[in-house]
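Fold this sequence, please.
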Amino acid sequence: MIIRYYQPMRMPLGEDGKLALDFVSTIRHDGAGGVTDDFAEDRDVARWVRDRWPEWAPDTSTTLPRRMRGLRRAARALFARAVRPMPPSRPDASHLMPEAEAIHVLNEAIADLSLDIAVEAGGASLLTVRSTASADAEVLIRGAVALAVVDFLAGPHVTKLRSCQAPRCVRYFVQRHGRQEWCKESCGNRARAARHRARSR
């Protein structure tokens, strides 16, 4: 059954990168030296969506899983571009989606929302932009994720985006300080140990 939302839904802002990073991090290290895909099965995509938008969770028979995988591939291609000249996350290095195609995928997901954008007074800033959409659940989900990716890549934190190059890690992360090389301390420990072994040899 398709649920159509006739009342406008306010679309979340994604400048902080949290949703975008959660999305691209569904490809991750499996803890045993390999890589795992949290979207490998359609039910896995449905679970990820349900955890974030329980009121929008669609039937797993929809086209959402396939389109979310395509959207993720587009997002990871643009993340890889954003970290240049540093290398991309290793799973992407040999088969990145072309940039023009990645941008088209994001634009398509956002266009499907038919956004209603208005400027209003509010908060700490003088003016804020309010985006609302009326659409079925699948369109809202894809659109919300695409907007979060674009908000982040066009926002102030993208200059601190990095790909973790520690052994076995495949994450993207936002630097908390200028000397941070790895996404978390355990990755730093592995990288330092690997460097020590290399020097010893």
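Helices lie at 18-24, 42-52, 64-82, 99-111, 137-153, 185-200. Strands lie at 9-10, 27-29, 35-37, 116-121, 127-133, 161-163, 172-174.
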